[in-house]
Inverse folding.
């Protein structure tokens, strides 16, 4: 069997401990894991692509089989370019499932050979999202334990 390359795509604005939990799980079952940041997102981001790349690189430095990259356009096109066999996505709760299923099925329609694999983060991260982290930080709340310390520092600097 050829080594399995998986892509873990997302906005990562910013990376949370939930993302890192999933990355760690992914590193154990895939040979290589590419964490891919979507560039052309419609959403107005808090952190630039360069900042998000830096934060992810710092937070995943201990994993030897993880790479951080960015992509534009369709995920399936990027996956084909990278010769990836798997898309990794996290499912925190049933509420995630409907949208994730829709994306997985659409991606399968676009590229039938590409498999989406869902993994669940640790239960303590089941309520965690980048959106809530941004909101809490912007309103002066503590995000301790929800994101890496370096990300917490950057969030504080960003909202002053
Ligand atoms: O972190 P997010 O915002 O939940 O990630 C969503 C992401 C980046 C996985 C999704 O928006 C995506 O794959 N966008 C790329 C464009 C694309 O392929 N769209 C069709 C999806 S079926």
């Amino acid at each position: 069997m050829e080594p399995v390359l998986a892509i873990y795509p997302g906005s990562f604005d910013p990376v949370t401990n939930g993302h890192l939990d999933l990355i760690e799980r992914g590193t154990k079952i895939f040979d290589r894991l590419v964490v891919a940041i979507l560039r052309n997102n419609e959403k107005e981001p808090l952190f630039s692509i360069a900042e998000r790349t830096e934060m992810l690189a710092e937070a995943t430095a201990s994993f030897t089989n993880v790479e951080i990259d960015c992509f534009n356009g369709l995920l399936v096109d990027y996956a084909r370019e990278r010769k990836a066999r798997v898309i990794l996505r996290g499912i925190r709760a049933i509420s995630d499932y409907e949208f994730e299923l829709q994306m997985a099925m659409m991606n399968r329609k676009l590229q039938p050979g590409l498999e989406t694999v869902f993994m669940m983060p640790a239960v303590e991260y089941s309520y965690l999202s980048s959106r809530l982290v941004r909101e809490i930080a912007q309103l002066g709340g503590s995000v301790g334990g929800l994101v890496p310390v370096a990300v917490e520092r950057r969030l504080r600097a960003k909202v002053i």
The mean pLDDT is 96. The longest strand covers residues 32-38.
